[in-house]
Structure formats: C-alpha cells, structure tokens
C-alpha cells in the first residue's frame, strides 16, 4: 500500500523544525529514519497531514563525549553508529551489544536512536537501555526546552511517551559507567531481526567479590520498558555468585505482570524473564 497524501517539509534549522511542529501540532509527524513511521503510513495506520523531516537539522547526529560523567547522543544518531560507536568503556560496550539486536542491517543503517525512543515500542532495545541507565531526554519546542527522565518519558502504554505534539526529542544524556561496571544484554526473539519477545539489559557495579549496585531493565513484558527493582535490590551488597543471580532472576520473573499474546502466554514470558535476566547478569559479571 502507499501512504495517504501528505505535505513534506525538510527544515534546515532546529528553529524552523520547531516552528513547523508548532504550526501543525497534531497534524504533523517528525520523520527521522522512517523505519517505523513509513511502514505505519503505508499501512494507513498513521496518516499525518504534514511530515517534518529532520534529516537536515544540524547537530542532531552528534555523540558528545566531552563530559567525563556522561555522554549525550543526538536524536538522529543511527542505530548502526551506536553499534559501531567509539564511546569508551562499559557504556560503549552496552551500546554495541544492544544495537546489534535492533532489527536487520538496513534498518540499523537508517533508523535513529531518538526515533526508537519517541516511537516507544514496548520491545525496543534502546528503550530498555535508556530505562536501565536512567537516561535524561532533552525535548525542545518553540516554548522552550525540558529534560525528562526515562521513567517519566515512557508512559507504560505501548507507543506512548510524554512528548507533546509540537515537541522534538533532540538528545539523550546517559551516565558514563565506571570501569568497575559490567554490562549485559540478552534477548529472545523467534527469528534474528524480529522484535524481542522478552529482553533484558543489565549494568552491574562490582565492589571486589560483591555487587555494589545493579540496574536491570526489561522489554516485552509491559506497555513500556520496566525496571526490575526487586531484582536490583536482591543483588545490592550480595556476593557475585550464581546463587545470587538465580535469586535476582526469580525476583524479576515474580515482579513482572506480562500479558499473553500470539507470541506467547504470560507464563511463557515470565519464564523468559528469568532466563534473560540470568543470561544478562552472567554476562555483566563475567
Ligand atoms: C522489519 C523491521 C524490524 C524492526 N525490528 C526492530 C527491533 O528489533 N527493535 C527495535 O527497537 N526496532 C525495530 N524496528 C524499528 C526501528 O528500530 C526504527 O528505526 C525505530 O523504531 C524508529 O526510528 P526511526 O528513526 O526509523 O523513526 P521514524 O520511523 O522516522 O519515527 C518513528 C516515530 O517517532 C517519531 N519521532 C522520530 N524522531 C523523533 C524525534 N527526534 N522527536 C520526536 N518524535 C520523533 C516519529 O514522528 C514517529 O512517530 C524494526 C523496523 C522494521 C521495519
């Protein structure tokens, strides 16, 4: 199918893009990589009257690494650039191991980090990563700017965020992880390149043989990414052993409340949570 007719704009400045979004409000959609929006338009699931293509807006494709405490990823940075990024340390490793799971190669060439977060698919890898790291999302509109934590950005309803119709996600700030932090990512999908049925992203700070702090985010178990906070608590201050990991994975399976669908029952997803959390924690602790 082909999309319904639409007006196309390719602004050259951020101000111009924000002006168009302000002018057209609900009628307009931002076009980033087009890997979710264009199929939705072709199936007439989305019928925006106006497309604001941000391909030529300067500055949105940068990864800023000057701050020793954080990295800021521009909204238009492509999936592939994050998979093959030059970010040093565990954060770079987490981007690389997570990015390879996002769709197929051609999708990763075009699709963008900000597009994935704004689209907010409950099984999106980048949404889980942003949630695990308590990312801060920078949003702009003609009325100003605001920074929203990942917890508030995703509204726990599929494909829903707190972005207003005239707001543009411009960048995402993520904490640099310390060198004592191990990272892990595990996903179960029926075929390579499919969306996850369940995925887990982990970052675990070690203190010698103990776990100082763990971050665990899950995808595919609710309307948005979910932090497994009981599992995180089950790891804090505990020895980094297989027994501790098993207890945390059991806690994660217990605290989620997935629904069943054609891809699997709720119990099946719960079992997958246990398995994916175990794998991702083992990876982080290895
Ligand atoms: C076959 C297939 C398999 C896929 N598999 C996966 C997968 O396994 N995992 C996964 O995570 N994704 C998957 N995707 C989706 C892909 O990752 C998309 O690239 C991503 O969801 C959207 O990014 P985009 O840049 O393409 O955004 P677009 O498609 O251009 O936009 C998506 C939505 O976000 C809005 N938007 C985009 N950028 C901004 C912004 N800066 N500010 C405000 N709103 C914005 C748009 O208006 C639109 O509503 C798959 C897609 C396909 C076609």
Task: Give an account of the 3D structure.
The protein is α+β, with helices and mostly antiparallel strands and 286 residues long. It folds into three domains: 7-52, Uridine Diphospho-n-acetylenolpyruvylglucosamine Reductase, domain 2, CATH 3.30.43.10; 63-175, Uridine Diphospho-n-acetylenolpyruvylglucosamine Reductase, domain 3; 181-285, 2-Layer Sandwich (Enolase-like, domain 1). The chain contains eleven helices and twelve strands. The strands form three sheets. It has a five-stranded antiparallel beta sheet with strand order 4-5-8-6-7. The longest helix has 20 residues, at 266-285. The chain starts with 6 loop residues before the first strand and ends with a helix. Flavin-adenine dinucleotide binds at residues 29-37, 39, 75, 102-103, 107, 111-112, 114-116, 118-119, 121, 124-125, 163, 168-169, 195. The site of flavin-adenine dinucleotide (FAD) has 28 residues, from strand 2, helix 2, helix 6 and strand 8.
